Amino acid sequence: MDSKMDEKVWVNIEEFLRNNLKINDHFGNEYDVEETLGEGAFGVVYRAIPRGSVQTQELKEEVAIKEIKVESLDNLDDAVKEVVMLKGVPPHQNVVKIYDDLSWYTLPENEDNILFDDQDDIQPDDMLNALKTGEAGTVDCRGIKFYIVMELLSRTLEKKEAMTDEIDSIWNRVLSLTDGLEHLHKNNIFHGDLEPNNVCLRDEDSLVLIDFGLSGRGSMQVLHRNASNSSLPSKIHKSYDMVDYAGIIFAISYLYNHYPEYDFDIRSLLYEWGKEDLRGKVLNELVAPLGADDAGRVTEVIVQCVNNRDLNSRHLIPSISAVSQAIHKTESYNKTCEGLKKFCELAGIEFEQRMLYRAWYEELIAAVPEDLRSSDDELIRDKLTEFADDDFPYLKVYNSITVDKIEELAKAYKMILYIVMEYLPIQLTEETAVAKNTNTLWNRIQSLTAGLHHLQRQHGTFDGNLNPNNLRSKNKDKIVLIDFGWSGVGSMRRQGILNKYHPPDVKPVKDDGSDPVYQVNHSWDVGAYGVILFDFFHIYAKYLEFRSQTSKKAQENSVFEDSFENSTEAEKRTLLIDRFSKFLGNDADRIVEMIVQCTHRDMNKRPSMSTVIYILHQTDDYVVTRRALTYFCHFAEIRFEERMLYKSWYEELIKAVPDDRPDLHQRLNESINGDFPYLAVFKYVGVKDIMSLADAYRAAHPHTLPQNLAIAKA
Question: What is the domain range of residue 587?
Fold first, then answer.
């Protein structure tokens, strides 16, 4: 076997087959079954009463008995695994109590259903050898069943009667769910299926974890999927528990604001809101049931778990140990906050809950100068990297690095922030925005992009009124954001007059004769960024034309600007490629598409600033996604286009999915809010499904077959 878990399961299979194999009638003489509580693909749960036999004399109350079916020896280890997991967990008030585990074997009633060629000689070694040699199909084991006897808990969170509008109960439920999951993870066990129907109420204040059919140690390949788990990844481990945990504590708190309405699928909002809006929107929902202080801490837990759920950032999800310490405000949590507040004071910034976790800590590591050394002559960057896996990484920094080095760290971190309050007299007008060479042009664009990305991604904040009047030029090559009078978190109302840097078709939410009121969010910034990007390149093109004394081109500039503002996406591509390709060269398609997508009239289809910065810098995710889409285009017999990287094209792909593939439709929808939606599809969907997608897309969007591909096929 490959892992310790497998070895342990194998030992229990041997023990079961050698010592517990017995012919018996259902529950023997130990329990009276009263009713069936539920039935699924792999088992049945009964309500039963102990008869008071020698084995059950200590049980005074009704119990639940879960019958686990074994269809073949191939999945016998799956059946044993649940028993092993439950027996291996020390008792805890927030984990279901296990009273007993029973296992029986019943001979098939039909004489044709024989176990072996010689049924008169049933030996456990025959079963063991069949498993070891991969010949389990020769063994009929449909009579093997496991029975787990546990406490009877009838109310799960998915039932409406479990809802409460008692604030104390809501907080106690959050605490009890945290404690139960922490107990499992401390014993190196992940639950694997943390859903509302697997969380029960022992009383109004206490939640209990049940159903360990998909639990395991380390990581585990999922072989069996039922209806409720159709979207589980191929491997599950503790970080998946954390994402599910975040969804449940959010739903518990969110539903308080909407009592007595009830729908636990409200967890999907966490994925629909998007990474930039998540912090503000969750906080708005949690303040009422949890109070401002607790809401801030719980909100950050949810944000860290949900926003880092992608494959490439899953290592940034905090452990349940760190979460529990934050929820309970332990001494370690308080000391870390104390240290970070002193750091923030030195850096001239405000303390944020996100600084407790690894995602921010990696920002800090990146800011450390490579040659900065501690008092014992160690490189501080290396020392910080050693602490990265701790529950609260900064706590060890605070305890092990001298004050003067902490001050140097703070100064280094401040240097990477583009949002600084300083005197910057050079306003960005058309005259001062002229870049005299491509290096200056690119440096300005990169600094503007980095500043806006930092504002949105790291702080969850939007600018709201991004335009050249609120930008300053620093050292000619750097653009700095100033004036945050319209800024906010999530989505907020702002009053004022719009300009060309605001969405073109947006309607006010209030217009009573004074300045209209608008609902402002991150998409406003993305659109303004796209227009400013257009301005930068357009001004640079005019500068080049002026130098070459093409007065006719200069006279056409105003007409070109009007054409851009009033054009469709396809028309914008044609206009911009024609004008900018002369000095952008091979970057033209990539940059033009970025401008087109950022200024998309449908604000819901605009990319996040994370997507923009990845494309601008051509990161690994960008390169891999582009390569994956090239394969897709080969199957679909179409040409790759830069627009395929964005949400607007991805929605076309979803619409092309055949009606008879709801599983594929669900998988695509789950990835729609990622930075590169198709990347998740490429990683989690098999080649056959990719080919099916390509065929469906080609049928829905017929294109001319590229000449070189046509020749290859011929």
Answer: 438-609
Apex 660 CA angle, 656 and 662, nearest 5? 80
Kindly report which listed range (429-433, 584-588, 693-697) carries the lowest average pLDDT score.
429-433
CA 647 vs. chain centroid, Å, equals 17
Q: Are residues 592 and 673 in the same domain?
A: no
Q: State the DSSP code for 177.
A: H
pLDDT tens string 615-656: 988 888 899 999 999 989 998 989 899 999 999 999 999 999
DSSP state of 607: P
For 33, other C-beta atoms within 10 Å of its C-beta total 13
569 & 443 share domain? yes
Nearest-angstrom CA–CA distance, 237 and 294? 28
66 belongs to an annotated ligand binding site: yes
Residue 189, domain member (yes or no): yes
Confidence category of residue 27, pLDDT binned at 50, 70, 90:
low
Within this chain, do residues 81 and 200 fall inside the same structural domain, yes or no?
A: no
- pLDDT tens across 195-252, in order? 888 899 988 889 999 887 777 776 555 543 333 333 444 566 788 899 999 999 998 8
Identify whether 424 is part of a domain: no
pTM of structure: 0.58
Residues 6+ apart with CB under 8 A from 59: 50, 99, 149
**Could you say which DSSP state residue 10 is in?**
H
- Residue 520 backbone dihedrals phi, psi, to 5 degrees: -105, 140
Cβ–Cβ under 8 Å, residues 276 and 485: no
Q: Give 6's contacts (C-beta < 8 A, 6+ positions apart).
A: 77
Task: Give how many domains the chain has, as a whole number.
Answer: 5
